[in-house]
Amino acid sequence: MSKARVIAYYLPQFHPVAENDEWWGKGFTEWTNVGKAKPLFKGHDQPKLPADLGYYDLRVPEVLEQQAKMAKEHGVEGFCYWHYWFGDGKRLLEKPFQAHLKSNVSDVGFSLAWANVKWGGLDYGDKFKRLLMDQTYSGIEDYTNHFYEVLPAFKDKRYLTINDKPIFTIYNPSGLPDSNAFIKLWNKLAVENGLKGVYFIAYQHFDFPYKEQGFDALTPPSPSHLFSRVKYGFLDKLVNKVTGYRLNQFKYKSFKLRNIYNHSKIVEASDYRDIPKSVKFYPSCSPNWDHTPRSGHKGQVIINTKPELFFKNLENCYDRIKNYNKDERIIFIKAWNEWAEGNYLEPDQKNGFNNLNEIKKFQERT
User: Fold this and answer.
1) How far apart are CA 28 and CA 40, in angstroms?
2) Model confidence over 112-171: pLDDT tens digits?
3) Are 288 and 343 within 8 A, CB to CB?
4) What is the architecture, at CATH level 2, of domain 5-365?
5) What angle do CA 117, 122, 128 make, to 5 degrees?
6) Using one digit for the tens of pLDDT, what is the confidence trace for 220-236?
7) In this structure, how many other beta carbons lie within 10 angstroms of the beta carbon of residue 286?
């Protein structure tokens, strides 16, 4: 049987930029929060310390070369880079992806996921709840400029595709004023520029009407889409049926009540048997999760993580896609390097290559 296409989300915030210098202090990168993390409860595994790749700087070309080699050796087909376009040409953290695009690195492919959301200081524990960067939508001209910004990547032979169309994932798709108009325009521009179109994936919970909004498929946000399933089970389904929302979309104050989850329970909830076959989605799984370096006691934590549970999670994901067409057998991993979310495949000092080795073992068995 054909192998799964394993694609890992890739965070480019491992180099200083002027905006972060202004907001958080000179030299801020993702490592800043990682380095100051502390355990918040008995048995809490913090801080997370990188191993083979160290506290890298993505301005150094050799880092990408090492990451790509590591990914290929363990069965990861590509990186899905978080892409920041805030409207009217305003970008952030674009240099790592541009460096990959301009490089000769071919061990891994790549795609883009538009982080379509404003940046707020609250996400990083900012008690002042500042709005750092707004997400704006100024219409057709801006959408067209955005398309031509990513067109060179779409045309690159390394860019990941489905049905010969470049994959473009959109986080917070409901934030678009008119997603159908946006998608229609981009597909038109794609054909005019020699492509067969664009394959749009909505990064959203299962209750999002992705077909009606013009998307080809959906991918659930991992692991947050599983938290309410684990914590509340039947109540979560009832609330969803009545209100259209999941319980994890409501706000709670109690860290003890809400935010600690056992890895085995997360994996049990990831079998997707209750999701209708008519829903075209690409499953996503996470080897680990700990958001406390960014958000302190408000952060969600998965405890008792084990490589064999990650392997089982991969198997659950594959059960859903095994009958898809070959190039649609995609599993997203969140993430390659979200260190301040405790959410990464890269080796750390405690667990080494354990999770990457599970992907390799999984690929050899599928």
Assistant:
1) 23
2) 999 999 998 655 555 557 899 999 999 999 999 999 999 999 999 999 999 999 999 999
3) yes
4) Alpha-Beta Barrel (3.20)
5) 125
6) 998 888 887 786 554 45
7) 29
